[in-house]
């Protein structure tokens, strides 16, 4: 590997970790870098290798955030196996569903999220009070299953969709939802990684090297979220909507 290629990949992994910790979408940075650096690499291997970095990075962000904010452990714990299995199922189906089918649906959903957040300034505010009932727990569980499957089969914006789902269902702040999203995202990344690894689609040495850099970026991103609060996450949601929608439109 050329030194410049290594520097670009490590720098991209740090940036991807920071973006993932703040709102999600780091894969849109790291996966194209991996494919550009190794043009003959199979796309599935790039996705699997990215998941190695993603598991470590989201874990680092989750641990950092948990030192300040503690979500209900029983609620989150019940969602972890759902996320793991759903993401694994999505990864298993990744070759069956064309990205061309998913792209317009995701663009519409992202734009809907952006309009909703922009028109509701108080949504996800820091002073929001969490409301947990059996019905809401079930609704959030369904959302985790859907988003987890999506993470395995396609992926962009998983963190943002989880944050929005938890904020809507539990009427809580963006920051509380971000902590829950990180924990669930660890499980979705792990579920997809197991399936990619079983299929031989993981370049482990590269993945571990990028994981170290990704963890650094994720730690910095988690500290950014805790310092910036709900307002930062709100702006991050709107930024991700614009950037990812533009990316997916021009990619098509």
From TrEMBL:
Name under which the protein is recorded: Probable membrane transporter protein
Family: Belongs to the 4-toluene sulfonate uptake permease (TSUP) (TC 2.A.102) family.
UniProt main location, coarse: membrane
Top-level taxon in the UniProt lineage: Bacteria
Membrane topology category: Multi-pass membrane protein
Keyword NAD listed: no
Keywords noted in UniProt: Cell membrane, Membrane, Transmembrane, Transmembrane helix, Transport
UniProt subcellular location: Cell membrane
Gene Ontology CC entries for this record: plasma membrane
Sequence intervals crossing the membrane: 45-66, 78-99, 105-125, 137-154, 193-220, 232-250
Organism encoding this protein: Corynebacterium tapiri
């Amino acid at each position: 590997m050329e030194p410049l290629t290594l520097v670009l990949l490590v720098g991209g992994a740090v940036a991807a970790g920071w973006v993932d910790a703040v709102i999600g979408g780091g894969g849109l940075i790291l996966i194209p870098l991996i494919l550009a650096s190794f043009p003959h690499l199979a796309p599935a291997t790039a996705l699997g290798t990215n998941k190695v970095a993603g598991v470590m990075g989201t874990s680092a962000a989750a641990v950092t955030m948990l030192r300040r904010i503690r979500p209900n452990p029983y609620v989150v714990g019940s969602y972890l196996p759902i996320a793991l299995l759903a993401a694994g199922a999505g990864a298993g189906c990744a070759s069956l569903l064309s990205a061309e089918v998913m792209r317009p649906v995701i663009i519409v959903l992202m734009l809907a999220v952006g309009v909703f957040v922009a028109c509701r300034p108080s949504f996800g505010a820091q002073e929001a009070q969490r409301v947990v009932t059996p019905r809401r727990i079930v609704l959030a569980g369904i959302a985790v299953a859907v988003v987890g499957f999506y993470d395995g089969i396609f992926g962009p914006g998983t963190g943002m969709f989880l944050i929005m789902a938890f904020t809507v269902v539990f009427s809580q702040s963006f920051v509380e939802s971000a902590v829950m999203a990180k924990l669930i995202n660890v499980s979705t990344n792990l579920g997809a990684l197991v399936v990619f690894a079983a299929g031989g689609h993981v370049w482990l040495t590269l993945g571990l090297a990028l994981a170290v850099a990704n963890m650094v970026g994720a730690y910095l991103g988690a500290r950014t979220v805790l310092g910036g609060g709900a307002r930062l996450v709100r702006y991050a949601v709107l930024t991700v909507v614009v950037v990812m929608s533009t990316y997916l439109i021009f990619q098509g």
